[in-house]
């Protein structure tokens, strides 16, 4: 069962001290294993019509960090709405549809989830307990399940 307290203590307690999300610290780019696990994802990141030629170029861009902030905003919204995740269904389905439209494969969200857990573990150290890992895994799975509806629905459907 998801536990808001575990999720909030795991991230927000530390975030209050540092005033930064653990995944957004200055060295967090090293913790995002996204491109180590699935290097071809770098080619999906297009900002201002510019494509990144390599992983390091993407990781060092302000646009990529803005994208990470957006990802964490979605995750944070899920934490805040933990007791009513269904209130985010339409938003998450549309977000999934947008990701599908730019060529993201549904299977790639497993890689994103693994990267998120790795970043949290690296940033939080011993505070990232097995219970916290399980809670984050469940939350992320719930978000992806809702986003995956964007792959299943016809974009012309009302």
UniProtKB/TrEMBL annotation:
InterPro entries: Globin, Globin-like_OT, Globin-like_sf, Globin/Proto. It catalyses: Fe(III)-heme b-[protein] + nitric oxide + H2O = Fe(II)-heme b-[protein] + nitrite + 2 H(+). It comes from the Eukaryota. GO terms for molecular function: heme binding; metal ion binding; oxidoreductase activity; oxygen binding; oxygen carrier activity. Keywords: Cytoplasm, Heme, Iron, Metal-binding, Mitochondrion, Oxidoreductase, Oxygen transport, Transport. One of its GO terms (cellular component) is mitochondrial matrix. Residues 1-152 form the Globin domain. It is found in: Cytoplasm, Cytosol; Mitochondrion matrix. Monomeric globin with a bis-histidyl six-coordinate heme-iron atom through which it can bind dioxygen, carbon monoxide and nitric oxide. Could help transport oxygen and increase its availability to the metabolically active neuronal tissues, though its low quantity in tissues as well as its high affinity for dioxygen, which may limit its oxygen-releasing ability, argue against it. The ferrous/deoxygenated form exhibits a nitrite reductase activity and it could produce nitric oxide which in turn inhibits cellular respiration in response to hypoxia. This is Nitrite reductase.
């Amino acid at each position: 069962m998801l536990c808001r307290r575990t999720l909030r203590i795991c991230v927000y307690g530390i975030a209050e001290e540092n005033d930064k999300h653990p995944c957004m610290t200055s060295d967090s780019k090293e913790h995002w294993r996204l491109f180590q696990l699935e290097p071809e994802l770098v080619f999906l990141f297009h900002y201002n019509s510019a494509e990144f030629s390599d992983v390091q170029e993407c990781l060092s861009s302000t646009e990529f960090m803005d994208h990470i902030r957006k990802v964490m905003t979605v995750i944070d919204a899920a934490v805040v709405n933990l007791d009513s995740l269904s209130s985010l269904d339409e938003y998450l389905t549309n977000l999934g549809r947008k990701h599908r439209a730019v060529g993201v494969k549904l299977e790639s969200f497993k890689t994103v989830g693994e990267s998120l857990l790795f970043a949290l573990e690296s940033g939080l150290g011993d505070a990232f307990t097995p219970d916290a890992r399980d809670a984050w895994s469940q939350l992320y799975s719930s978000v992806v399940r809702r986003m995956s509806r964007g792959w299943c629905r016809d974009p012309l459907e009302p």
